[in-house]
Amino acid sequence: MSDNLILVGQVGGAFGVRGEVKITAFTDDSMALVAYSPLLRADGSVALTLTGARPDKKGVVARAQEVATKEQADALRGLKLHVPRDRLPEPDEDEFYLSDLIGLEVRDASGAVLGRVRSVPNFGAGDLLEIAPAGGGQTWYLAFTRATVPELYIADGWLVVQPPTVDETEVE
Fold this sequence. Notes:
The protein is mainly beta and 172 residues long. Helices cover 6% and strands 38% of the residues.
């Protein structure tokens, strides 16, 4: 994926029989997807040019120039939709986009470098940091919470993590 593209939604499939698509929005305002149109694929090519939309439970139900039938809409199920970062509003002083975390150096509380943030996936239970170890090897995941990531220095290119400890006395 291009570094300047931000994930803003994902196609859920068809809505009805007239070629409308359900889009799960990853934005504060789901209707903003219309203003960000055209929505792009991860490679930067145009995926959907929205011509209209209405709010839905998880996002929007939209019409797009590229989709005329239910079958075409269903074929797009799972398609991730992006927009160039420069088309999104700048985050407030204490805010950031999750993509800003990718590439940051990961340090522990003593300052020792543990690795770098490789990605920020969300499999449904909250955002995770996928961390590539400094010495190589298997990546590992850490829940992205204030408790596990107490300090962020995005402008300086690093963050501090406090991985949870496992108390073996509680394991049965």
